[in-house]
Amino acid sequence: MTQLALVIDLNVCVGCHACVTNCKQWNTSGSAGPLVDERPYGKDPTGTFFNRVQTFEVGEFPHTETVHFPKSCLHCEDPPCVPVCPTGASYKRKEDGIVLVDYDKCIGCKYCTWACPYGAREIDEKQQVMKKCTLCVDRIYDETLPEAERKPACVLACPTSARLFGDVHDPESEVSAAIREQGGYPLMPEWGTQPSNHYLPRRKTKMKIHKDELVRTDNPLKKEGHLPKVDENENFLEDTASW
Amino acid sequence: MSNINTAPTQEEGVEVKNTTCYMCACRCGIRVTLRDGEIRYIQGNPDHPLNKGVICAKGSSGIMKQYSPARLTQPLKRRPGAERGTADFEVISWDEAFDVMETRLRHLRATDPKKFALFTGRDQMQALTGLFAKNFGTPNYAAHGGFCSVNMAAGMIYTIGGSFWEFGGPDLERAKLFLMFGTAEDHHSNPLKIELAHFKRNGGRFISINPIRTGYSAIADEWVPIKPGTDGAMILAMIHEIIKTGLYDRDFLTQYSNAAQLVNQDADSDEFGMLVRGLELDEGKIHPRDELWWDRRTGKAVQTHTPDTDPFLLGDFTLEDGTPVKPGFQLLVERVKDCTPEWAADITGVPAGTIRRLAHEMGITARDEKIELPIAWTDAWGNEHESVTGNPVSFHAMRGLAAHSNGFQSIRSLSILMSILGTIDRPGGFRHKAPFPRPIPPCPKTPNNAQDIKPNTPLAGMPLGWPADPNDLFVDDDGEAVRLDKAFSWEYPLSVHGMMHNAITNAWRGDPYHIDTLMIFMANMAWNSTMNTVDVRKMLNDKDENGEYKIPYLIVCDAFQSEMVAFADLVLPDTTYLERHDVMSMLDRPISEFDGPVDSVRIPVLPPTGECKPFQEVLIELGSRLGFPAFTHADGTRKFRDYPDFITNFETEPGSGIGFLAGWRGKDGEKAMRGEPNPKQWEMYEKNNCVFHYTLPKSYQYMRNWNQGYLEWSQHHRLTRYTDPIIIHLYSEVLQKFRLAAQGKYGGKQPPDRLRKRIETYFDPLPFYYEPLEGQLSDKHKYPLNAVTQRPMAMYHSWDSQNAWLRQIHAHNYLYMSPKVGAAGGFDDGDWVWVESMHGRVRCMCRFSEAVEPGTVWTWNAIGKAKGAWNLTPDANESEKGFLLNHLIAEELPAHEHGANLSNSDPITGQAAWYDVQVRVYKADPSEKQQSSPQFDTLQPVPGQPERKSWLAYFAGKRK
């Protein structure tokens, strides 16, 4: 069974928000739209976004990590938002595992918001229906689009290609390989929701310098007759030996 | 969403058009889908060499810029009797606007052209605005570069002939180690993001040296927090360590820099510190431009690059005539002798061990991970090379280094670090983008005396240029400034991008003179683009004893109701980027790639809103009416119908074949780079994704400073006048000439006595570190903290505060600081605090962060707004909680030994020293209003602005 999902590489996400607004512009005029903005030019502007980037710090100065963390519906294998829905508006598609909301059935009761441990649901205050990431279901099967563009808008936009998209049930897919090989992890697995979206952790590249790499026969200083000299004030064997 | 259409057929009413983004200066290719004439989707153009299909948060929010209620839609004039700053306007026609401008400007041009000043913002059409100013005959023209990052351009171009910015960048495809100094998020935004990700995925090591860990620094493998303004000291210590351990690329320095060239060391000579030249060779032939090496084999001075010689880089020698000389590298070694990592640790706050280790990492990576590409090339001395080699250490920096008053020398230090590692225009290092590299310095020059400004005559030179010696300065017979902003004067000799940040203060004070008309395009000089915002707003509104404005007439062209618009006497409504023709020209800020020249165009995807008119059209119309030679025939009739016609048919001189666009030239579009005008050029760009990309042969893609093939190609296509190799100025003879002049040892122009010491100090031919000027003049016990800004990637300066989506990401800003600052001041995270410099104070909210060096506080740039500006409601977060640091930063230094009204700028380049300010932070009294301070009177919307909706449910076109 296919399970479409996003794999987000925190190792390269710079927190630029391209995915946030590209999602907004695609979806507001798409099948899931419009995405309302309240007080767009006033105090405390707020609106419906299917995808948001949270930024937080880990550790204490100077050992601080600044983490940019994009978050949208995780399209759980066992989505808690579905069984709590009193009208059946929230549902998970069998064919591709995408979790969707049928606006015609949604009564805006927000049970799903309370059930979702990830805060991925976005109530549309004007329409009073619940909205959320659709994985751009109106793009990914659109055969009028070039094949390379049949991807969620956030994936297309991402300048660091931090967002991978594909079938996490297909072991041969790019997303499965990334999860397998790069330590991909789901968010809060203890909730038992089995999120389909995964995150790839930060990876550090370090450089090990061996002391002898600083000494070379082709040292250009030789040509000037000024080789680096050993500092005679350093510790030598003589300083501690007792022959 | 019950009836989700998962396989829609091609919708009716849908059109797709390509153009070029302008949500920031990156200028990505975009593909715009329209539905029923409304914007459905803006995506990155996958076939564009710059962004390769990706797009950023700003570019993705173009819809909300296009349909913003902040749009200006009608020409406006200040209502008679209304005060400037109140935004009390009445609608006028374009005919009236043009008549008013024509009359006023015709008179100024015929009487005293310098009384007209044109200053522009981040407009990317400086080739046209500069052409307009030159044809008008005024020297008083500049774009925003002087207050942005001119130190970066000047520091690097005066050293290696190219620069970060749009002129070159790190080759992250091949690099193994990458160091980024300071904030650099907005210069080459999407390409850098693309490359950073590839670099990291390929196992590259990324080190960020920055007081703050945000943006790109977040994904660095190592973050090195440093005190602001001290990078120069760290870089000098790295140079010290690399030289000490012999990790420099000797062969590269010898062949391609002036490291081995001999410098006159006779302190009594007028030639002291100059390169020794004019050796009489055996043939009895004088080569007055020939520099010398001291050959190791023969123990004699020889002409540089003499076959079968190998010069000393170190040592001191005596010429036959008794002149003591030293190689430039020896002088550099002496300069950095005491710049130990321990010395730098005290200044920078970075442990000496870290500095030493980073130097070793760079040196060892450069030496041991050499790249060899099987590309044969020939150098400028005729030597053939079988391959191109590279040392894979890359760097990037922009404003973080530039916006300090010691930035020029810091950036020269960085350029020298890059050079000693052997990384210039080589794979894995720094690579140029056409039309760079340029000669050092580049050839364009300003006029050099006051008599060059004549009525009804184009300026005898460019308004902006690159001084090569003191006699290129634009000063009068007394050695004082000719330009309003005092650029190219002895106060800031190498201010190659002008000094827009001092234009208003100088015009208001009448120093060096009063002007009549100030035209501002797309620059918010009454708000975030100015230093000392509160006082500058007063100056814009200040009157003389006769009740006349001290700056008599202000013309502002903008697409949006900015704070600056409120002060205008005449407002010209500009179009958005989606409504106009435009060019990203190589005559301007290039968008070239490493592998060759690139230029591109905008083609309107929507008709103009209301009466909006592109500023380009305003300039063409005015230039034609005023009879400028560039825009009219000898009989006075206009040459160009409109801007697109101008772009098609303009040539730099008749028959030159050089125009604004390099693609599809020649009668049928068959020529590239040069060729006669092609009447179908716009159509050909349109058919080709709006972009032209000329790929150089591989053998011309590297080592271009010294690549014979490339230099000849470049000359053949008129990119550069000379084919001489562009030798890296490890030792800057150009700077030494200014120093000699200050010492009375250089013929020609002399600095005024008050500035001699200043010139002598800062025009050091070798890089050095000095404390930023404001720091030197501040009471650091009272103001112990540094305050800087960072660039949010989702907001470009003030351009997007009108944008309903982007302002949901950044509606207001905080002052970020270490919790230690709060603990010392007795306040908590989220409290209202005052941040105060010696110039003023601002009330704002604080936020504690562990991602900032404890001696630094910072905020996002340009988020705060004046009440009612940009058609935001008066209670919008931008004005209630948002704030500018600008109120704390003066445009002039306190009076000191070198003068009273010197700009708060780099003494070499006039770069605005935004990041030098010293502050203290203390808790606001609980009884105070919980609102940012200072506040200003609420602006009302101006006539013609679209309605400001209380909610939006944007959906493009009709729902089918």
How would you sum up this structure, described in words?
The complex is a heterodimer of chains A (243) and B (960). Chain A has 243 residues and is an alpha+beta fold. In chain A, strands 10-1-11 form a 3-stranded mixed sheet, covered by helices on one side. In chain A, strands 2-3 form a two-stranded antiparallel sheet. The longest helix of chain A has 11 residues. Helix content of chain A is 14%, strand content 19%. Chain B is of the alpha/beta class. In chain B, the strands form 10 sheets. Chain B has a 7-stranded mixed sheet with strand order 5-4-25-24-23-6-7, with helices on one face. A 6-stranded mixed sheet of chain B has the order 30-32-31-34-29-33. The radius of gyration of chain B is 28 Å and the shape is globular. Chains A and B meet through helix 1, strand 2, strand 3, strand 5 and helix 4 of A and strand 3, helix 5, helix 10 and strand 35 of B. Strand 2 of chain A pairs antiparallel with strand 35 of chain B.
